[in-house]
Amino acid sequence: MTRNVGYLSGTDSATLSQLAASGVNTIPLSNGWDNHGRYIDSLTVSDNLGAIVGYFHKLVAPHEAQASPTSFLDSARIHKIPVIVVCPANVMARARELLGVSGKTLHWASPDQVHDKVMALVGPDS
Q: Which of 47, 66, 75, 112 has the most other CB atoms within 10 Å of its CB?
């Protein structure tokens, strides 16, 4: 089975290389204002994403967008795609407060935990 992981701009390239070497396809996604890849809120089941990875700052809409934090992750919630929020451990508690209870499936990881967290979600190589 093909394993796909969407990632937002700024995701560590070494982690993405580790994932690719583990047999995981990495697909660029856009948060809607950085034009990094496919717009994250237009995802469908056919995209076959096992997870989405993004740094905390990419998941918070800028004030100008007049959107709630992570509002563009509705398709992830609808399609039950887990979202890994990458954040340094020393600010993780504050970041969780800022995102609030969003109803999305959020998994938190410090930068050094991302590869293991993704592999736990998408499963071992088949």
A: 75
Mention the CATH class of domain 3-122: alpha beta
Cα distances from 52 to residues 63, 66, 77, 84, 90, in angstroms, run 23, 23, 11, 6, 22
pLDDT of 74: 83
Strand order through the sheet with 3-8: 38-39, 24-30, 3-8, 49-55, 83-86, 106-109
Q: Is 0.85 topped by the overall pTM? A: yes
| Count of beta carbons in the 10 Å neighbourhood of residue 85 | 22
Give the Cα separation of 78 and 45 in Å (integer): 9
CA dihedral sign, ordered 69, 30, 1, 108: negative
Q: Are strands 83-86 and 49-55 parallel, antiparallel or unpaired?
A: parallel
Domains of the chain by residue range: 3-122
